[in-house]
Design brief:
Blueprint lengths: L1 E7 L4 E7 L9 E6 L2 E7 L4 E2 L2 H6 L3 E5 L2 H28 L4 E7 L5 E7 L7 H11 L2 E6 L2 H8 L10 H4 L9 H6 L6 H4 L14 H12 L26 H10 L5 H41 L1
Helix pairs in contact: 2-3
């Protein structure tokens, strides 16, 4: 059991198909059965083996390689699509409908014709469908698409000089905003950052995540490192090394009980009383010295 990647015609899409007993190679045309019916496609990758569980999940499969009859049918479909497009454009102009025809697709089994169009508002095209069904003798489907899908179907060359990403490899459109252009320090002029579809270019979102990560790294505070154990720097010997007895001294200092507030309050009156006693002693000495001086003076006069 194998799977293969096949690119369908309109719109350009790549899907995985189950390949049973059909040997296809890269760049080989084949006929496949999708959810829309039989379609003509091109293999874009070599077949790959798959498990039975994975095979149960895949509903679409390759029917056969494209034969000469299939190639002739495909060329006839291209001519019929051009004819159907001219008929539909004439009907739209005749009925003056506010819509723009983009492309026409015939299914490979010719049981249905799909018309892709764009419109700025809702369009009542019921009468148009009846006229087309009567003219083409087939089932008619009108599908409203967006301007991005229009660029994907038509194709073109972008500002970079390469084919449009949506036409070559981009499968799904991502939402694009002006914030992406501001974050990347690009010009905010719509003419410079808009694609052929008139919307912001899809490539603005390709590197947006990198700029977001860089912005988060700038605004995010530095992570806290693991706290290291504090090292106590004590006195050292003559060689600049700590003495062996220093840890014991630090332990003795830490073991001393701290002085409480009550003990400090009790120590303050003791200091005051000692100061008073020293003042009294000084006063007594001064008095004695003063009395001794006066007695000497009186004795000399007698």
């Amino acid at each position: 059991m194998q799977t293969v990647r096949v690119r369908l015609r309109k719109p350009s899409r790549v899907f995985t198909f189950l390949c049973k007993n059909v040997l296809v190679e890269r760049d080989m045309h084949c006929v496949v059965r999708s959810d829309r019916g039989l379609e003509y496609g091109t293999c874009v990758a070599s077949p790959e083996p798959c498990s039975e569980e994975m095979a149960k999940r895949i509903d679409m499969q390759v029917i056969r390689k494209a034969t000469e009859n299939d190639l002739g049918t495909f060329e006839q479909l291209l001519r019929d699509e051009a004819k159907a497009r001219s008929i539909c454009a004439a009907k739209i102009e005749e009925k003056d409908l506010p819509m723009k025809l983009v492309d026409v697709e015939y299914m490979f089994d010719r049981h249905k014709v799909i018309f892709y169009f764009t419109a700025e508002q809702r369009v009542d095209f019921r009468e148009l469908v009846r006229d087309l069904a009567h003219a083409l003798r087939a089932r008619i489907e009108l599908r409203h698409i967006q301007v991005r899908d229009q660029a994907k179907m038509i194709g073109g060359i972008g500002e970079c000089g390469r084919l449009l990403c949506c036409r070559t490899w981009l499968r799904e459109f991502m939402p694009i905003s002006m914030k992406m252009a501001k974050r990347q320090n690009l010009s905010l002029s719509p003419e410079k950052i808009s694609g052929q579809c008139g919307r912001l270019m899809c490539c603005l979102g390709f590197e947006n995540e990198q700029y977001e990560d860089e912005k988060k790294a700038r605004t995010q505070p530095a992570l806290e490192t693991d706290a290291e154990e504090p090292t106590v720097v004590g006195p050292s010997d003559g060689n600049g090394l700590k003495s062996e007895a220093e840890p014991e001294r630090l332990a003795e200092r830490a073991a001393v009980a701290p002085v409480t507030a009550q003990e400090q309050e009790g120590a303050q009156p003791a200091k005051k009383s000692s100061r008073r006693k020293s003042r009294r002693r000084r006063k007594k000495r001064r008095r004695k010295s003063a009395q001794g001086g006066t007695g000497g003076e009186t004795g000399g006069v007698g």
